[in-house]
Design goal:
The protein has 458 residues and is α/β, with parallel strands linked by helices. The chain has 14 helices and 18 strands. Strand 2, helix 2 (59-73) and strand 3 (77-83) form a beta-alpha-beta unit. Helix 5 (161-170) crosses helix 6, helix 8 packs parallel to helix 9 and helix 13 packs antiparallel against helix 14 (435-453).
Length: 458
C-alpha cells in the first residue's frame, strides 16, 4: 500500500524534517495553515475550526504561531491546546467538533527535528489523496487572498485540553476496575504526555513513579522514553513495580516492561490483547491487523485460538486504513503503535497500556506469566545501502534467490525484501526455524542484489 506519488512533502506520517530548515520552516507552516483552512472550510457556511496540539520541542512555539497565523489569515478559528499527545489531538478534534486537528511533533526524533500531521474531523489521519490536494494547493495564488476586516480569524487557548484527554483515556479502562495496589513506572520521554500520563494512571489508583516528566524544550526523547526502555526496566526492578510504561515523544507509541525488567515485544503485546479479545468475543472477525514486519510468532499465537493476522504495508496509517476497510477493531505495529478502534482513532500509548493493565487486573497474574505463551520465530533483518534503486522485476538474480529461499522455508518461514521509502537502501528480512541458516540466506540475497546492480561489497 504505497504512498501517493503525487505527494512530495507528506510522508507516511505527515511532514517532517529539521526545524527551521526547508521544508520544516515557519514560512511553510504559515502557507500550510492557509491551505488547511481553505480545505477544511469547503462546503461550510461558518468559518472552519482547527485544533492545534504539539509536543515539547523548542521549535513548537515557532511552528504553532505560524500555523495559527495562516489559519487566521484565511478566516479560520484556531483552538490552541498546548503540549498534549497526538492521540489527544485526534480525540479532541472529534469531541470539540473541529474541522481538522493539527499535531506539531516529530514523534521519536531528536529535539531539533519537528513535523506536522493532520487529522480530519472524524479523528483519523487524512488519506493520501487529501494530503496531495493540500500539497497542490500550497502553490496556488488563491492562498494569497486572505480574509479582511471582521472576517479575519482568531485563536483561543483551550486551557483544559489535557484534563479532557485524561478523562477520555480513563474511560477506556473497565469501570468496575481500579489500579489500586499496582505500582507503575511511567517514562513520558520529556514529551507531550509529561503531565497526562502520570495523571491517568494515578487517578485510576496506581502508585506512579514518573520519569521523563521535566521537559525543557531540548531533552525530548533524549536517553529516555520508548527509545531507551532500559531506564524504565532498571527502575521497575529497583522499585519492585508490576509494570513499566515507556512512551515516545508524542505518546502514540508505547514500550512495555514486565515486572522482571524485561521488555515485552510489541508482537507479544498484540498477541496477548488479541487472544483476550477473542476469548471475550470482542475482536471483530477474530482478526488482528499488523504490518509485514510482525513476527510469525504473532500469526501462530493468534491461530492457536482461532484468530487471524492480516498484514499491511509498514506504517500505522495503513494499519488503520485496513482496519476501517475490513471492519477490524484491533491492530498495530511491532514498534508499539497499538490501535483499539473502540477507544481511539489512532495509536495511543496510554490507552494501549491501560488495556494491558486491565488484563493483568482481571487475571491477577504478573505480566511475565501472561506473555509466556508467545514464542517469536527466529528473525534476521539487515539493511544495505546500494548505489541505486531498481524495480525487483529488473533484478533477476535477487528474485531468483528470494524464490529459492521461500521454497526451502515453505510454511516454516517467510521472506520480506523491500526498498526503503526514502533512500536506495534494501531491507532484507527472513524468518524461519534456524537463525544460522537465516543469516546465510540474507547474506546470499544481499550479494545477489549487488550483482544485479553491478555493485561490489564494501
Amino acid at each position: 500500500m504505497p504512498t501517493s506519488s503525487h505527494r512530495k512533502l507528506f510522508g507516511t506520517d505527515g511532514i517532517r524534517g529539521q526545524a527551521n530548515v526547508a521544508p520544516m520552516t515557519p514560512e511553510l507552516a504559515l502557507r500550510l495553515g492557509r491551505a488547511i483552512a481553505v480545505v477544511a472550510g469547503q462546503g461550510r457556511t461558518r468559518p472552519p475550526r482547527l485544533l492545534i496540539g504539539k509536543d515539547t520541542r523548542l521549535s513548537g512555539y515557532m511552528l504553532e504561531t505560524a500555523l495559527a497565523s495562516g489559519i487566521c489569515a484565511m478566516g479560520g478559528r484556531v483552538l490552541l491546546c498546548g503540549p498534549i499527545p497526538t492521540p489527544a489531538v485526534a480525540n479532541l478534534t472529534v469531541t470539540m467538533r473541529a474541522d481538522a486537528g493539527l499535531v506539531i511533533s516529530a514523534s521519536h526524533n531528536p529535539f531539533d527535528d519537528n513535523g506536522i500531521k493532520i487529522f480530519g474531523a472524524d479523528g483519523y489521519k487524512l488519506p493520501d489523496s487529501e494530503e496531495a490536494a493540500i500539497e497542490q494547493l500550497l502553490g496556488s495564488p488563491s492562498l494569497d487572498d486572505g480574509a479582511t476586516g471582521t472576517r479575519i480569524g482568531r485563536a483561543t487557548r483551550i486551557d483544559d485540553a489535557p484534563g479532557r484527554y485524561v478523562v477520555s483515556a480513563k474511560n477506556t479502562f473497565p469501570r468496575q476496575m481500579t489500579l489500586d495496589g499496582i505500582k507503575i513506572v511511567v517514562d513520558a520521554a520529556n514529551g507531550a504526555a509529561y503531565k497526562v500520563a502520570p495523571a491517568v494512571f494515578g487517578e485510576l489508583g496506581a502508585t506512579v513513579l514518573s520519569e521523563g516528566v521535566k521537559p525543557n524544550g531540548t531533552n525530548i526523547n533524549r536517553a529516555c522514553g520508548a527509545l531507551h526502555p532500559e531506564h524504565v526496566a532498571r527502575e521497575v526492578v529497583r522499585s519492585n513495580a508490576q509494570i513499566g510504561i515507556a512512551l515516545d515523544g508524542d505518546a502514540d507509541r508505547v514500550i512495555i516492561v514486565d515486572e522482571l525488567g524485561k521488555v515485552v515485544d510489541g508482537d507479544a503485546v498484540m498477541a496477548l490483547c488479541g487472544r483476550h479479545m477473542i476469548a471475550e468475543n470482542r475482536l471483530p472477525h477474530n482478526t488482528v491487523v499488523s504490518t509485514v514486519m510482525s513476527n510469525l510468532g504473532l500469526e501462530r499465537a493468534l491461530a492457536s485460538v482461532g484468530g487471524i493476522l492480516k498484514r499491511t504495508a509498514v506504517g500505522d496509517r495503513y494499519v488503520v486504513e485496513e482496519m476501517r476497510q475490513s471492519g477490524c477493531g484491533f491492530g498495530g505495529e511491532q514498534s508499539g503503535h497499538l490501535i483499539f478502534l473502540d477507544h481511539a482513532t489512532t495509536g495511543d500509548g496510554i490507552v494501549a497500556a491501560l488495556q494491558v493493565l486491565a488484563i493483568m487486573v482481571r487475571e491477577q497474574r504478573p505480566l511475565s506469566e501472561l506473555v509466556a505463551f508467545f514464542e517469536p520465530s527466529p528473525q534476521v533483518l539487515e539493511s544495505v545501502k546500494l548505489p541505486k534503486r531498481r524495480p525487483f522485476e529488473e533484478m533477476p538474480r535477487l528474485t531468483a534467490s528470494i524464490a529459492k529461499v521461500e521454497k526451502k522455508l515453505g510454511r516454516d518461514g517467510r521472506v520480506l525484501v523491500r526498498w526503503s521509502g526514502t533512500e536506495a537502501k534494501l531491507r532484507v528480512m527472513v524468518e524461519g526455524p534456524n537463525e544460522t541458516e537465516l543469516r546465510e540466506f540474507v547474506s546470499h540475497m544481499i550479494d545477489e542484489a549487488r550483482n544485479d546492480l553491478g555493485a561490489t561489497a564494501p
